């Protein structure tokens, strides 16, 4: 989502070093983002922020601490924390518990949590994936489901970007995760050039309207609480009264603060979440368009089709046939849909 522009000088991305974390992934991600910065410089992408990498660990008081100061703390708040994979077994309960409060606090403050392979267990142990879908390596799907029955584990997708939480499957999926973050913060061209330099598969350019990039660092805790709730529930039953109650605000005050924080009206924001989830279902399941419309919260499949086409420029059926790399010139525009029965 790009309701308003955030051109901070640096995007601070942290890497979590925990016992038995794969050092190759930590160093590889550091190199990937360094290459992305060099590609942005070479392309003259003056408007694109640069990525700054820091490595973090949990201290004696279970607080998250940087291993070395960044030197320039003008924009040092973590935008993303990546939890790398491990070559060893799933972290034991004590290790997960030791990281729980720090990860929950970061998420509550608006930091995007991202995981590679068994890194997803850290996020799941926080309860942040309850009711949501996350990627997991096929060897760990059953264990993840058994330990955390309230989440849905997906082994067919390499990467699942759900806005405030991103998960990826497989030990080497850190390349896809890193490129997806470059694409989110620095743009398609920088991501493609980075992949080309590293000689790895590029991330397909997402069809407009089908990829979430929510503004989470606006500082309004009440609005952020609602954003997390909407992501967790898929915005399926989100009415204005329910959102205002979640924020503990009067509806009029909530509307004003939500738009100021995110650049979008609540209805528009919810529509984006629904369309992004619908696109994922269209791509990775065999459900009919009518079934998907119901799954993402539309009682009227016709209303869903109109919203989807307005957001992406093509119909749901055409999206399924052509795939996500299609880039029509008429992208449509986000706006309220009077046919949206849930949050009119």
From TrEMBL:
<dbReference type="InterPro" id="IPR029062">
    <property type="entry name" value="Class_I_gatase-like"/>
</dbReference>
<keyword id="KW-0805">Transcription regulation</keyword>
<feature type="region of interest" description="Disordered">
    <location>
        <begin position="325"/>
        <end position="344"/>
    </location>
</feature>
<dbReference type="InterPro" id="IPR018062">
    <property type="entry name" value="HTH_AraC-typ_CS"/>
</dbReference>
<keyword id="KW-0804">Transcription</keyword>
<protein>
    <submittedName>
        <fullName>AraC family transcriptional regulator</fullName>
    </submittedName>
</protein>
<dbReference type="Pfam" id="PF12833">
    <property type="entry name" value="HTH_18"/>
</dbReference>
<dbReference type="InterPro" id="IPR020449">
    <property type="entry name" value="Tscrpt_reg_AraC-type_HTH"/>
</dbReference>
<feature type="compositionally biased region" description="Basic and acidic residues">
    <location>
        <begin position="328"/>
        <end position="338"/>
    </location>
</feature>
<dbReference type="InterPro" id="IPR018060">
    <property type="entry name" value="HTH_AraC"/>
</dbReference>
<keyword id="KW-0238">DNA-binding</keyword>
<dbReference type="InterPro" id="IPR052158">
    <property type="entry name" value="INH-QAR"/>
</dbReference>
<feature type="domain" description="HTH araC/xylS-type">
    <location>
        <begin position="224"/>
        <end position="322"/>
    </location>
</feature>
<dbReference type="InterPro" id="IPR009057">
    <property type="entry name" value="Homeodomain-like_sf"/>
</dbReference>
């Amino acid at each position: 989502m790009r309701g308003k522009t955030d051109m901070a000088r640096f995007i601070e991305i942290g890497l979590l070093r925990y016992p038995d974390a794969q050092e190759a992934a930590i160093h590889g991600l550091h190199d990937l983002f360094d290459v992305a910065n060099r590609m942005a410089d070479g392309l003259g992408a003056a408007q694109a922020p640069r990525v700054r990498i820091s490595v973090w660990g949990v201290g004696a008081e279970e607080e998250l601490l940087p291993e070395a100061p960044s030197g320039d703390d003008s924009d040092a708040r973590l935008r993303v924390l990546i939890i790398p994979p491990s070559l060893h077994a799933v972290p034991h309960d004590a290790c997960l518990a030791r990281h729980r409060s720090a990860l929950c606090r970061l998420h509550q403050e608006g930091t995007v949590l991202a995981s590679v392979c068994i890194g997803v267990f850290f996020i799941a142990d926080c309860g942040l994936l309850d009711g949501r879908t996350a990627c997991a390596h096929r060897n760990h799907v059953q264990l993840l489901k058994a330990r955390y029955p309230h989440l849905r584990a997906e082994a067919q997708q390499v990467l699942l970007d759900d806005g405030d939480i991103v998960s990826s499957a497989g030990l080497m999926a850190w390349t896809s995760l890193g490129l997806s973050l470059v694409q989110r913060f620095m743009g398609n061209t920088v991501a493609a050039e980075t992949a080309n330099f590293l000689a790895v598969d590029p991330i397909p350019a997402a069809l407009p309207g089908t990829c979430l990039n929510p503004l989470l660092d606006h500082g309004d805790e009440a609005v952020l609480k609602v954003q997390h709730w909407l992501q967790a529930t898929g915005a399926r039953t989100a009415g204005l009264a329910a959102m205002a109650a979640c924020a503990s605000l009067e509806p009029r005050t909530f509307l004003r603060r939500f738009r100021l924080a995110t650049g979008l009206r609540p209805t528009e924001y919810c529509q984006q979440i629904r369309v992004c989830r619908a696109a994922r279902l269209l791509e990775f399941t065999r459900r009919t368009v009518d079934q998907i419309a119901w799954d993402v919260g539309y009682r009227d499949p016709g209303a869903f089709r109109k919203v989807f086409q307005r957001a992406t420029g093509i119909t749901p059926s055409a999206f399924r046939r052509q795939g996500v790399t299609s880039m029509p010139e008429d992208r449509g525009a986000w706006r309220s849909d009077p046919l949206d029965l849930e949050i009119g």
